[in-house]
Amino acid sequence: MNPEIYEILKDRILYMQYQPGHILNEKVLAEEFKMSRTPLREVLMRLEWDMLVRILPRTGALVTEIEFYLMMHTFQVRFEIEGLVGRLAAEHCKDEHLKKIDAIIEKCNPLYGERNCRKLVEVDIEFRNLLFKAASNPVLKETSTNLYTITQRLWYTILDRGNWDDEVKNVQNEIMGTKKSWEDGDPKRAGAFRKDALTRHFELIRGKFWGN
Questions:
Q1: Cβ-proximal residues to 124 (8 Å cutoff; 6+ apart), any chain
Q2: How far apart are CA 102 and CA 51, in angstroms?
């Protein structure tokens, strides 16, 4: 599989350049990326495994719809995994991780008053990558990232609804709370905080999705 093309197409789907229902035509993409269809199909098969597209025989792939009930089931699994990520990160975090988390917290400040959904998601992803580095478990990272990918579009599509500064504050508070749990040196409490933070995040998404 061509990882560069995979990341390009995945990015276009996650940030809604390709809307749900969009057809990824093999011929068009092969011409755009100047590649044969065989390696392109490998990329599309990986995106199907990510649950971002559905392969259409002799055509290409269809970008999947954002189905709330699938998201809900995915979040149920994420709640448990997030607790493990938080616990392991707290057990293994070092001073270098605390310095990096401070830098990520600071990246939230310019976003107040600047309604830029992509930048806020990128801050969240950078924070998650730091959690994975601290946790130092590649299998956990891959599993958690795959689940995050499934739910990312749902968050992104409703992120600009309501008070923008509240959204930025929610992300920043979550990162600050995680830092404090590291400093407290209590991995069990850190895991509980991560699970609770994701639960609150889901409740906010659900409220916006249903218009509450």
A1: 171
A2: 34
Q: What is the pTM of this model?
A: 0.91
Sheet holding 53-56, edge to edge: 23-25, 60-63, 53-56
The model's pLDDT over 6-36, given as tens digits with 9 standing for 90+, comes to 999 999 999 999 999 999 998 899 999 998 8
For 142, the domain range is 68-209
Report the C-alpha gap between 137 and 120 in whole angstroms.
25
Neighbours of 4 (CB within 10 A): 10
Residue 74 belongs to a domain with what CATH number? 1.20.120.530
Which helix (H) or strand (E) element contains residue 56?
strand 53-56
How many folded domains does the chain comprise?
A: 2
The total of other beta-carbon atoms located within 10 Å of residue 154's CB is 22
CB atoms inside a 10 Å sphere around CB 211 = 7
Based on the fold, state whether residues 83 and 168 are members of the same structural domain. yes
Distance of CA 122 to the CA centre of its chain: 9
- Single out the residue of 127, 119, 141, 209 nearest to residue 173, CA to CA: 127
Residues 35 and 98 in one domain: no
Tell me phi and psi for residue 16, to 5 degrees: 65, 20
d(C-alpha 21, C-alpha 61), whole Å: 9
d(CA 29, CA 31): 5
